[in-house]
Amino acid sequence: MRWAFGSPGARLTGDPCGRRAVSASSLHVAIAATLCLGGTSFARAVPSYRDLNHNGRLDPYEDTRRPVEDRLDDLMRRMSVEEKVGTLLHISPPADDRIGLGRKYDLAKLRQTIAEAHVSSLITRLATSPRELAEQNNAVQKLAEASRLGIPMTISTDPRNHFQVVLGASTAGGGFSLWPETLGFAALRDPTLVRRFAGYARREYRAVGIHMALSPQADLATEPRWPRTTATFGSDPRLVSDLVAAYVEGFQGGRGGVTRIGVATVVKHWVGYGAEPDGFDGHNAYGKVARLDNASFASHVAAFNGAFAAHTAGIMPTYPIISGVTIDGRPLEPVGAGFNAQLLGTVLRGTKRFGGFVLSDWAITNDCPERCERPTAATPQGFAIGMPWGVETLSVRQRFAKGLNAGIDQFGGVSDPKPLLEAVRAGEVSMARLDEAVRRVLLLKFQLGLFDNPYVDPAQAARVAGNPAAQAEADRAQRESQVLLENRDGVLPLRAAGTRVWLYKVDPAAARARGFVVVNDPAQAQVAVIRADAPSEMLHPHHFFGSRQNEGRLDFRADDPDFAAILRASAAVPTVVAVNLDRPAILSNVRSRAKALLATFGASDAAVLDVVTGAARPKGRLPFELPLSMEAVRRQDPARPDDTQAPLYKAGYSWTDTHHVGSTGPAGK
Q: What is the pLDDT at residue 99?
């Protein structure tokens, strides 16, 4: 990294990192941090400019005094076609394993990728300490700075501040503050809290060198069996819209769009993703089609209104083919949303007037061979991952051209620029369309301040990520987001001191810390406290994503270990059951056996025990209805929210607030 130091009328050259600096006598900007990337030195300096193209002079795109549009124009003129094409790739970088997991990037391979493919965007899936993550991201920026034009790297991430970790949807926290799932925020219905959460997460992201959140999900949770439900804001399009707006505002640093201290949000998945028949997911070939009609489609679109009002930086199209919908009297083309000009052009750019950038979901241009479509025990899917739904018969080059012409600005999860470069050179993509997409990607880098200083202080990262103030608010949210569904005979709150308790899936140390006496047999206990997960099945064990997702039934059955524990305990003592709802669960046979019943959406054992003992009060209301039976689930419309017949608990219900609008309490009450 080369800096020029100086102020008007002075000539001062030098470099605290021991590298050559360039003098600039007439420039002065605010004091900023200069980092030595070996991790051992940190100096303060007055940088005049960053000589990104290493030519020894200040060029317009390096000049912080110039308007962003002028800087962008200058950079665009300097870029080769190859560099422009590389800008449209958002890679999964090589790391400790082939999909980017681990504690370190493979910097040697990444250096080669940057040099040959000219990429300047990547997703980080590293799970390590905040300090180490900051150091790794600094090392990436150092590689980017060594490129011909020194274009900084935009580093994105899936959500990192929640409990559930599923490859392709969320990432291990690695020292970040730990909050409820977004369903928990939906249970609290508080945009101010969502905005505060996003503000904390924003500071954590920027402290470690992350600039883009591949979140939130504005998807409506309309199909109870859908495995992506846990990261939604529930089933009410108006509530989803309001909470998505608050999320975007908190992350981006304001309602007017992304700021220099912000994190760009990419709201997903445009649009109709939650309407998957049988709850199957579009990552998988068996979930490649979602079915809606025009009325239900309008509700799914309305859930995104808050994202547009808050000027989200980006939108990510959904994977599946959207069927049953007409736009301006014409049926939607039967292709995945990333290839659909009606969804991206007519509705997104036209009706919704979205002017930000569109980032495809991962691997939509890849092939899906036989082992991807129909894997078996003998030939499991493995890493044969591709989601080219509706365009399977096109070549990879044709898919890139179709996606870009439909409205994609950047392609996720691909690192080979050759097919897109060939499409451009063959005239299948115009230079005007290429430049339009490149400008959107680069503009965001300027708005985030990355051209001026993309580096972070690892020591500061360790102080910011997971700081006590943030975690205190996160802990409170874990407690308050719980929903009290039943409290028969006033069993709650429990008196902890000296009470003998039998536990299931609860840390005994957490119970003892509150004064409980933990016993090994329900027959010896005075009360039982059980944590259970919403039921699920592994219906597709040979599919890469299907084997990692909760699919299938929602009802508790006798051979479920969690339900067996409930049966054992409730036969002996009053039983308190807390069910974690990553999807709606059918609680008919649990309700009849539990004296007290709680719904959680990502909460620690300590948070649950605080509610059970009365140290905290649950304030949540159900963010979706809980069906009465699997037959009711099978008969509902996957595209319409909360439409099962005679639900056991309606959306918005809580035991402590049965007068909430739209709530009539459990069936039979």
A: 67
Taking the C-alpha atoms of residue 411 and residue 423, their distance in angstroms, rounded to an integer, is: 14
Q: Please identify every residue annotated as catalytic.
A: 236, 361
Mean pLDDT within 142-157 = 98
Cα–Cα distance between 133 and 371 in angstroms, integer?
35
Amino acid at 515: G
Contact (Cβ atoms closer than 8 angstroms) between residue 344 and residue 405: no
Q: Quickly tell me which residue has 């490649």 as its tokens.
A: 288
pLDDT digits (tens, 9 = 90+) for 325-372: 999 999 999 999 999 999 999 999 999 999 999 999 999 999 999 999
Q: What is the pLDDT of residue 200?
A: 97
Q: Which residues share a beta bridge with 362?
A: 412
Q: Could you tell me which residues come within 8 angstroms of residue 340 by beta carbon, excluding any fewer than 6 positions away? A: 317, 322, 332, 333, 406
Q: What is the pTM of this model?
A: 0.92
Judge if 281 and 425 occupy the same domain: yes
What are the pLDDT digits (tens) for 169-186? 777 767 999 999 999 999
Nearest to 250 by CA among 311, 194, 186: 194
- Cβ atoms of residues 237 and 658 within 8 Å: no
Q: Give Cα separations from 158 to 177, 426, 437, 513 (angstroms).
A: 15, 35, 23, 34
Based on the fold, state whether residues 426 and 497 are members of the same structural domain. Answer: no
Q: Which amino acid is at 234?
A: G
The 10s digit of each residue's pLDDT in 204-248 is 999 999 999 999 999 999 999 999 999 999 999 999 999 999 999
Averaged pLDDT score across all residues of the chain: 91
Q: Are 354 and 346 in contact (CB under 8 A)?
A: no
Q: How far apart are CA 381 and CA 373, in angstroms?
A: 8
Whether residues 382 and 517 fall in one domain: no
Give the separation between CA 27 and CA 335, rounded to whole angstroms.
53
What is the widest separation between alpha-carbon atoms in the chain? Answer: 86
Q: What is the spatial distance between Cα 62 and Cα 150, in angstroms, rounded to a whole number?
A: 10
The total of structural domains in the chain comes to 2
Q: What is the identity of the amino acid at 481?
A: S
Domain of residue 573, residue span: 482-657
* Alpha helix segments (H runs only) across 36-158: 68-78, 81-87, 107-117, 130-145
Q: What is d(CA 575, CA 565) in angstroms, rounded to the nearest whole number?
A: 10
Question: What are the tokens at 659?
Answer: 């007068």
- The structure tokens 């699919």 sit at 551
Q: Residue 657 corresponds to which tokens in the numbers above? A: 């607030």
Q: What is the DSSP letter of 412?
A: E
Q: Identify whether 141 is part of a domain.
A: no
Mean of the pLDDT values across residues 146-165? 95
Task: Say whether the peptide bond before residue 191 is cis (omega within 30 degrees of 0).
Answer: no
On whether both 515 and 436 belong to a single domain, the answer is no
173 Rama class: left (phi>0) / alpha (psi -120 to 50) / beta: alpha
First-to-last alpha carbon distance for the chain, in angstroms, is 69
